[in-house]
Specification:
single chain, alpha+beta, 2 domains, ten-stranded mixed beta sheet, globular
Length: 303
């Protein structure tokens, strides 16, 4: 399969999920699983499905390759729970990220193959309602994960969460409180993955140029009775390193090379007047012609 074929998997998956869960019989089966089997609230489950279908209609598809997935998963494990959702941190109002390497929260739970999100507003009766992309008054973001169940014909939308602007990861709530299929560890990891993805895109550690989907995918989209609004896919990739010119009155000659590990910094943002976790990406420091050292002791020559 060529690159465009792989990238188009994101839009194909988005179309397939929208088609499958739009069918009344499949929606009824989903409701039965959660209400009759697990004892969840019928109104909340119905709202979750309606919101999920709306997200799939308006979301921009993102393709996330396996190496980028692993980078996100590792960083998500250590993101500070003080991470706060702000409007400017939301990379796009609605998105569908296809994870080519599934996300495992804990060993006994189903792997997530995609995550979708969209802005919401509070309705008159206290329900969270999806917004049109050009509307004002967004209150936060709703997030849905799509999990792979062995033998099930489609990915199952699960772990529906929402977070208001100004809220942090600790305050993130779920429309499935106390759900038997999810525990606190799983919920925190899912929320942390979304936060890490948004942060990396906003910091431009990751970039997401648009590519036209392949011809076969575009044809399927044209034939679909209900489908996403775009025939393009955002491909998430690492930003190219920008080399800075030499400057200053002193040069440093390092006697070796070493790896600076990736880590989170609690960065102060004066314009926003609050701290926000900022990821410091791992990188190699030191001249290329020097040996790589693993010792914590590093030596430099300054002249």
């Amino acid at each position: 399969m060529d690159k465009m074929g792989r990238y188009s998997e994101a839009l194909d998956a988005q179309m397939e999920l929208l088609h499958f869960w739009s069918q009344p019989s499949n929606k009824a089966a989903h409701e039965y699983i959660w209400v009759e089997t697990l004892g969840m609230d019928r109104g909340a489950i119905s709202l979750e499905m309606d919101f999920t279908l709306r997200i799939l209609e308006i979301a921009e598809p993102f393709y996330v390759s396996a190496p980028i997935c692993e980078l996100l998963y590792q960083a998500a494990k250590s993101i500070p729970q003080t991470w706060t959702l702000t409007e400017d941190l939301l990379y796009v109002p609605a998105g569908f990220a296809w994870l080519s390497s599934p996300f495992h929260t804990v060993e006994d739970e189903f792997p997530s193959c995609a995550v979708a999100w969209a802005s919401f507003t509070m309705g008159d009766k206290g329900w969270w309602m999806p917004m049109s992309l050009d509307a004002d008054g967004h209150h936060g973001v709703a997030i849905s994960y799509f999990d792979k169940l062995e033998g099930f014909p489609a990915l199952l939308p699960q772990a529906f969460m929402f977070i208001g602007f100004g809220g942090n990861l600790v305050e993130m709530e779920s429309l499935q409180p106390g759900g038997k299929m999810f525990n606190d560890v799983s919920g925190r990891l899912r929320a942390s993955l979304f936060a890490t993805l948004m942060t990396f895109l906003r910091q431009r550690i990751l970039v997401s140029p648009r590519f036209l989907a392949d011809r076969a995918t575009r044809r399927r989209l044209e034939r679909a009775s209900r489908g996403p609004r775009t025939n393009e896919v955002r491909v998430v990739t690492l930003r190219s390193i920008e080399r800075r010119g030499k400057g200053g009155h002193r040069d440093v000659e390092w006697s070796c090379r070493w790896i600076v590990r990736g880590h989170w910094r609690n960065q102060w943002y004066p314009s926003a007047k609050h701290h926000q976790p900022k990821w410091i990406a791992p990188y190699m420091k030191g001249p290329e012609d020097k040996p790589l050292r693993h010792s914590e002791r590093l030596f430099a020559v300054v002249r």
